[in-house]
Amino acid sequence: MLVSSSKITRAREMVTKTEEKQLNQLEIQVDNGGGGTWEYLCLVRNLKLRRSEKVLKHGSSILNDPRKRSALGPYEWTLNEQVAIAAMDCQCLGVAQSCIKALQKKFPGSKRVGRLEALLLEAKGLWGEAEEAYASLLEDNPLDQAIHKRRVAISKALGKPSIAIELLNKYLELFMADHDAWRELAELYLSLQMYKQAAFCYEELILSQPTVPLYHLAYAEVLYTIGGVENIISARKYYAATVDLTGGKNTRALLGICLCASAIAQLSKGRNKEDKDATAAPELHSLAAAAVEKEYKQKAPDKLQLISSALRILKT
Amino acid sequence: MNFGFLVGVFGVLILSHAAYSTIQYRGLLKIMEEEFSRPPINVILELIIGLALCMWAALTFPGKFLSIHPDSDENRAVSLPDNSDFMIFNHRGRLFPPEIDMKF
């Protein structure tokens, strides 16, 4: 079994279509017993996806076979870490414990392994001990980003989103450039229906990474939820930006444009004609509707009738 | 060695032959004490042929060009990475652990 380190792709901020296709192909191949297990595991690790069951199954099959394990060379320990986290996610705590023990033997006194142990305490549900472990790890290096984030995760797991939000805000005052943290904060605010604050978080994300279309999409959705003609006009702009950045293939953004157009027409019923004409964008609406119908014709032709009648109602 | 590579090598040989001819021509002009304005017509023709061959080889030999548009069908964003820094473990899946036994 070749350790193809040259094929290890660099981690990026989003998952592209080719990577998704490659991942699905590898997944099918690995599930059916063909080779390529190590490539699959590397791809999952680089794309930072959460496929815990598959990683656990195939990773432990490599680790159980001593021949394959020694063929990995130094990457054996990365695999141990990956399988340990996947095992914790699937609640196979014995597997996680053995992986961590192997890592402890190889790297005694390592902070990274210490983090894994505290993570195991979290997975076991011993929140108090996990907090203490993180606090003691923080004493040694108070600026460890991962540990701060795990403390937020503990509050989230205990069902205290307000405390999680407080901790996350304090963390973001120090580390303002952490996109994952901004995303998490936006989702926490959304779970508490604090839409204006969530919109602020998405604005920060769009400012720092304007080429990721999914942030534009999320921002548009929050604006649409808040409501009001001004917000829906902005939402339509951001849906259009998403359509632009994804080459017109994001069906959700296309539908969003149609919905926005219909909402604007309804909300501005009382206004005079010039205002209405300024805010309406009839070409955008009809183009988006046509694009949606084309997508449905390609991918789900039996639902085409449904979507055509829905779009017709939206147009009136 | 495929055809594109051979054409490229051939183009480079033609170009170097043209260079050598030009140097020889300059030497000849120095002997005859005349001005060197431009290489003779056949060398220019050779240069053009060499350019065409090398360009064709450079475009066909490397194989398939990758798309650079961020919104092309291959490069468009499909999903964001799952935020695993904030992953929590008390979800419903923990009631169905898969059967894995460890031998190490």
TrEMBL record, chain A:
It is found in: Endoplasmic reticulum membrane. It is a peripheral membrane protein. Transmembrane segments: none annotated. Pfam families: TPR_EMC2 (PF22890). Its main location: endoplasmic reticulum. The keyword Membrane applies. Keywords: Endoplasmic reticulum, Membrane, Repeat, TPR repeat. Residues 113-222 form the EMC2 TPR-like domain. GO terms for cellular component: EMC complex. The keyword Cell cycle does not apply. Component of the ER membrane protein complex (EMC). Belongs to the EMC2 family. Part of the endoplasmic reticulum membrane protein complex (EMC) that enables the energy-independent insertion into endoplasmic reticulum membranes of newly synthesized membrane proteins. This is ER membrane protein complex subunit 2.
From TrEMBL, chain B:
It holds the Pfam family MMgT. Keywords: Endoplasmic reticulum, Membrane, Transmembrane, Transmembrane helix. It is found in: Endoplasmic reticulum membrane. GO terms for molecular function: inorganic cation transmembrane transporter activity. InterPro entries: MMgT. The keyword Transmembrane helix applies. The keyword Coiled coil does not apply. It is a multi-pass membrane protein. One of its GO terms (cellular component) is Golgi apparatus. Coiled coil: none annotated. The chain crosses the membrane at residues 42-61. Component of the ER membrane protein complex (EMC). Belongs to the membrane magnesium transporter (TC 1.A.67) family. This is Magnesium transporter. It comes from Arabidopsis suecica (Swedish thale-cress). The lineage of its organism: Eukaryota, Viridiplantae, Streptophyta, Embryophyta, Tracheophyta.
